[in-house]
Amino acid sequence: MKRVLFALPLLVALIIGGFAIWGLSGGRDPSSIPSVLISQPVPQLALEPIAGVDTPGLTTEDFSKIEGIKLLNVFASWCAPCRAEHPILTRMAQEEGLTLVGINYKDKPEAAAKWLAELGNPYEAIGSDYSGRAGIDLGISGVPETFIIDEDGIIRHRFAGPVVGDGLTRFTEALDEVRK
């Protein structure tokens, strides 16, 4: 009986270790997490602007006022992948005629203002989601996440993770599908 009790912690550790290795192993694409919002209108948003940033806040009505395809980017100044994708999204907005709007997620206004001043502000509107409520309504799993929204304000694609490298290729393919 003592041997069984002695081996029990080792067995539990092996099981936990196995799940950890499985969880960290490659081959899974975080952007493929399904979203119930696909083919649905953007949920109700009424987000105040970021204090210290000269960009309006973000409401659901903004998506029907803005013509063409919109990219809704959920970002934070504390997010390193957000920093990596920022120049790519900026370029896409400038060169491809896309409207970029943002939600600053669980971020201090002064940190967000400094981040945007440093990297540039390509957003037409940015809502401050300090509480994380809008993130819950959008079903995000973390930052960055970017939603492709069609001209009618319908969410057509959700991309979890940074729009860089292979992610940029997958994101561009999804964008091309929405453009058809």
Overall description:
42% of the residues lie in helices and 18% in strands. The chain is an alpha/beta fold and 180 residues long. Strand 3 (70-75), helix 3 (80-95) and strand 4 form a beta-alpha-beta unit. The longest helix has 23 residues, at 2-24. The model has no long low-confidence stretch (mean pLDDT 90).
Features:
single chain; alpha/beta; Glutaredoxin; 42% helix; 18% strand
Q: Which consecutive residue ranges, at least 5 long each, have pLDDT under 50? A: none
Alpha-beta classification: alpha/beta
> What is the highest CATH level, the class?
Alpha Beta
Q: What is the number of beta strands?
A: 7
Distance between the termini: 68 Å
In helices, the fraction of residues equals 40-55%
Average pLDDT over all residues: 90
The third-level CATH topology is Glutaredoxin
- Counted up, domains total 1
Number of helices: 6
CA-atom Rg in angstroms? 20 Å
Shape: elongated
CATH superfamily: Glutaredoxin
SSE string: HEEHEHEHEHEEH
The largest pleated sheet is described as: 5 strands, mixed
Corresponding CATH architecture: 3-Layer(aba) Sandwich
Question: In what order do the strands lie side by side in the largest sheet?
Answer: 5-4-3-6-7
Main location: other
Keywords: Cytochrome c-type biogenesis, Disulfide bond, Redox-active center
Protein name: Cytochrome c-type biogenesis protein CcmG/DsbE, thiol:disulfide oxidoreductase
InterPro entries: Periplasmic_diS_OxRdtase_DsbE (IPR004799), Redoxin (IPR013740), Thioredoxin-like_sf (IPR036249), Thioredoxin_CS (IPR017937), Thioredoxin_domain (IPR013766), Thioredoxin_ResA/DsbE_sf (IPR050553)
